[in-house]
Every structure is written in structure tokens, then in C-alpha cells.
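Before the break, one more example. Copy the sequence into your notebook; we will annotate it together after we see the structure.
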Amino acid sequence: YPLGYGAGMTLLGTDLHKASTRSTGPWRRLVLAAVVAVLGVFALGACSSSGGSVQTVGPDEFRAAVDEGADIIDVRTPAEFAEGHIEGATNIDLNGGNFEAAIGQLDSSKTYAVYCRSGNRSATATGIMADNGFSNLYDLDGGVLAWQSTGLPLA
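Here is what the structure looks like once it is written out:
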């Protein structure tokens, strides 16, 4: 007969209301665990960088990367660079209007240690570099301020 409001529905002889409130035991827990695991894998994938590897590190790890041969890039303005910079750094101003063209001239397979004043611009710069195929990047957390706070020198 036609289903009206409040009419009981059955699925293969089972009342849907009773089926939805009945515990399914270990199968329910297994399905829930599988769903959580799949969502966890997707969450981890969403957090990874699509273009390359950016490691945000403190001054000691940054210095170690430089000691191991990383090229240093200072993304501050030329005026900030002139006031003092990490020895050996090349100045490529993130906000100078030609950042992507300048990094396009670099070897993307090399390792780069990137810094700014406080860490904000270098985070942006390393993100752009990773998106442009650079795969070995170090970003100085806290920037040159953190570098100086540990007693490391500027040139």
C-alpha cells in the first residue's frame, strides 16, 4: 500500500528504525577505525608541500645547512641587507618585483638556506621556490632576529 506519514518501512524484513539503533558490534568499530585511518592519510597529504621540501629550522640547524654547502638567500630589501646580513648571502628582495624571475636563474636542484628579518617573508619565499620546483630548502625560523639572538654574527 502507499506509504504515508509514520508508516513503518522494512528492508529485507527489517524495521529501519530498529536497524539504525542496533549495535553491530566489532564490525562497527572496524569500519570506524578504517574511516579514521583514511581521513588521517588525507590530512597528512594535505599538509605536505606540493613542490618540494621546506624545512623550517632554528639558527643552529640553519648554520649547519650552510656549513654543509647550502647557498644563502636573504629576501629582505637591499637597505635591510646593507645594514647587516649573514656572511655569504645573496640578496633577492621578495617584494622587489622580480623575485620569481630571479629564482628562475638559480639551479633548483641545489640546497638553499633562506632568511629575512623575522621569518614571514622567508616562509613566503620558500613556498614560492617549492612551487617552482626547488626541492631542498631551509627557512630560518625567526629570521635574522633569531640568528642574532643566539650570538651569531652578521657581515
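The chain has a mean pLDDT of 81. The first strand starts at residue 10 and ends at 11. Try to locate both features in your own notes.
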